[in-house]
Amino acid sequence: MENQKVFAMEFSKVYPLLVAKAVRKGRTRQEVDEVLCWLTGYTPEDIRRAEETPTPYGEFFRAAPAPNPNREKITGSVCGVKLAEIADPLMQEIRYLDKLVDELAKGRPMEKVLRR
Question: Which Pfam families match (predicted)?
Fold first, then answer.
């Protein structure tokens, strides 16, 4: 049930929080966009449109045009939960983004964040 609450949240409410977390640690909105584009296949313009229209967070990920096949190389934990152990594939996609933004905020180089 808790997943449904996350899926129903508006992208326009969540995205600024992700950007703020990165910016507080010296990173930029453009870097968050780069990570989000890499993960989902959206363009920066697509992200702006999603910000300006009522887009549920879950739908944003369900409609991703080209999920990156290397996203499965993202490992570790978010909020004490191992990414590999998340049963719901949609929640796993959301947590991948959380993990990437965490890595950005910790100062990892973009090449490593994007698994290049």
Answer: DUF2200
Q: In the prediction, which pLDDT does 79 show?
A: 86
Write down the pLDDT at residue 26. 96
E strand or H helix that includes residue 24:
helix 11-24
What's the one-letter identity of residue 93? E
Dihedral sign for Cα atoms in the order 41, 20, 107, 100: negative
The DSSP code for 87 is -
pTM for this model (two decimals): 0.92
Distances (CA, A) of 42 to 49, 61, 64, 90, 105: 11, 10, 7, 16, 21
pLDDT tens by residue, 71-85: 999 999 998 899 999
Residues with Cβ < 8 Å from 86, sequence gap 6 or more?
92, 95
Residues 6+ apart with CB under 8 A from 106: 25
Q: Which of 20, 19, 49, 52 is nearest to 36 (CA)?
A: 19
